[in-house]
């Protein structure tokens, strides 16, 4: 007997904004992106989430927000 669980979480960028501050790695500007994700189990979406993520505009690193 074999159990296969198909899980997927596609992400889509909804909007981008200029954020205050500088990248600690290269000194470039920071871009805030609203990312919509929908975790799926066997191709059925479980819920929709919108998260704000921060990226550097020069080196394209994902930055972690400290709250």
Automatic annotation (TrEMBL):
Organism this protein belongs to: Miscanthus lutarioriparius
UniProt lineage: Eukaryota, Viridiplantae, Streptophyta, Embryophyta, Tracheophyta
UniProt-recorded name of the protein: Methionyl-tRNA synthetase
């Amino acid at each position: 007997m074999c159990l296969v669980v198909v899980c997927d979480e596609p992400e889509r960028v909804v909007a981008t904004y200029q954020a205050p501050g500088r990248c600690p790695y290269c000194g470039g500007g920071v871009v805030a992106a609203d990312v919509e994700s929908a975790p799926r189990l066997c191709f059925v979406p479980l819920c929709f989430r919108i998260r704000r993520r921060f990226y550097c505009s020069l080196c394209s690193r994902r930055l972690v927000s400290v709250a």
